[in-house]
Amino acid sequence: MINIAIFGYGVVGTGVAEVIRTNSHSIANKSGEEIFVKKIVDIRDITDSPDINILTKDAEEVFRDDSISIVVETIGGIGAAYEITKRALSSGRHVVTSNKELVATFGPELLTLAKENGVHYLFEASVGGGIPIIRPLYSCLAANEIDGITGILNGTTNYILTKMSKEGSDFSAALKEAQAKGYAEADPTADVEGHDACRKIAILSSIAYNQFVDYKNIVTEGITKISAADMMYAEELGAVIKLVALSKYIGDKIYARVSPCMVSKEYILSNVNDVFNAIVVSGNAIGEAMFYGPGAGKLPTASAVVADVIDIVKNIDSNSRISWKINGENNTFDPMKAETSFFIRVKPAEKNTAKESIEKIFGGSNFVEIPEAGLSGEIAFVVPKQAEGLTFEGIEKLKAQGAVLETLNVIRML
Amino acid sequence: MINIAIFGYGVVGTGVAEVIRTNSHSIANKSGEEIFVKKIVDIRDITDSPDINILTKDAEEVFRDDSISIVVETIGGIGAAYEITKRALSSGRHVVTSNKELVATFGPELLTLAKENGVHYLFEASVGGGIPIIRPLYSCLAANEIDGITGILNGTTNYILTKMSKEGSDFSAALKEAQAKGYAEADPTADVEGHDACRKIAILSSIAYNQFVDYKNIVTEGITKISAADMMYAEELGAVIKLVALSKYIGDKIYARVSPCMVSKEYILSNVNDVFNAIVVSGNAIGEAMFYGPGAGKLPTASAVVADVIDIVKNIDSNSRISWKINGENNTFDPMKAETSFFIRVKPAEKNTAKESIEKIFGGSNFVEIPEAGLSGEIAFVVPKQAEGLTFEGIEKLKAQGAVLETLNVIRML
Fold it and tell me: Which residues pair with B366 in a beta bridge?
């Protein structure tokens, strides 16, 4: 029998206890051992719970108990979670977490600590909720050199964008509905500004390219500026707008970004709707594979946590197989030099003159018009692939010349 | 260094050698050992190959060589492949295969033999080509009790159906094009009659439910009867026609079948086109997750084979983690009792009388008409979910009564 302790009895923590309780028989079958939740630590007052008998506020009850060999950390954040994780690993306990912020921030240190102590530090649940993606990346696709990852990694924003796209609603109305349904938090910043997706693509990239990719080096743009008009243009272009997190090798550097993108309806990611997540992985042998599923939620996320626990039980005597090298210098590609096609909307001083200026600056731009949409006061156009810095300079030039009064939106084409 | 031998230098075998050669550095990194192809056995005369120096027709060269610890079997079929596999396992060598026929036929015996000899028998590549699905099922989703699997498991038929759906072509024209492109074999029976998908859903089900599901007990229907008219009706119903392999628990029995199905365009599987495969797995914690990618092809399939090899190298001292219990009795559910909704097209003796008979027999049937399609000589209708046997009886009754002269097609609704 393997005893585990859960730190943090929130949504994921309760889910972990529930999954282990509900599926105890098949879990014992698959892992070869019974898995038993011996303690749950949470500093809050919890009075009504099926786990009341094993709940405690005192972390020492876990650390004093040598029979507990695996710690599940579902506290979240980088405060107490960081201290508990370090202490657990240092004491020779395996740790499983769903905490993307902690992994993206202190991953290299914690993985090294795990290795030094001959234990595992696993975090399948930190990206894509229940979707198996971390293990497929380093195990199932191990024969491949991974060239790139493209994903929809945040369910909240995907729900909002799906709503806007299907119902023509604007951002704030869709956000309110997401909040009412519990898909968005009262303070939605981390989701709608792309911070959550940024941590996740940092983790996936670190696994895929076998070197730490610091989330602080990842260009991150949220969806707050996306409007109903943008959605109409997307439709006109045969696309939908998604918050896309991607990374790929450019030369020997890693280019990574999170931003809204026009995604062609022909591309499989365009069909990923509502709170679902999906990750497309490109490898030099497999071509492209996609992993799709619920990106959040109590039981799906718990499913990923418990899969890690089972994996540890099956390999209890080995230690962490993952390590992230840290390059002393910045290993990410200069985003201004990355080549991207853009969709741009501007408010012109005078339409025909502005169009001439746009053509002069951007060469083969394609103008997009939706006569029936009542957007006649603006110019929309697609700038072909070129270094992003050049496109941004071009926009500034248009403004400096006076041809354009205002930039209404600038959205990348995937 | 780990030495391996490849038996069968066809499409997949050459791919395995190529992937190991191309990605040797990263493979050594991930597996912790260099992997070296020491011998390739093929009974054919091969004169032009980058592997000419290690090619041999003599299997004994492998079995005499104690330094070879892993055998890759990419011969196919259940003749020589079966003998080589038994011999390799019995001699204490791990075996990796892409051979679905062998696994579906002799899986329980070969897995037992592997266990007895303390070695692995792995077959990720036998289902879904490059898509990681076997390992996700038994490892990444280990916390779940799997309720069901629904998949598009055959690339050839999916290519043909996609062609028919998008271009309005009929089956034989689409088949010819698939053959011209190398997506279908000269004798396409195994693909178009559903035999290939049947072996694959048998393997997936055996893994998911942890008991051997014999492919001979799986209802299997191919796509040869699907016509351009059926595709038009599908469109009218907001669906596409796909060859769907599925299995699920009904009570304590397993229901499994392969057949063309109307798949609603709202469902994620409807967007899986061309030669791509996808598998939706339902579990009691995760809900639904989908795995999508290239279902065949040299390098994708090799990618899955080599992932298994790497997994063995990382766990070289452990043995097979999979075993399939065989129930003495038939563990599959009586297909006539499975509840399914059907789309049915019949040629009536007289239209109004036939419609009355249909309504009498099937109750709440919905008639489907496409006035502009020139199909006025027939009646098409949807029968709501009920035991399949009842629906088949109903059709026979319609014929016996003389209301219906001929059944034009009977297609399941997913």
Answer: B382
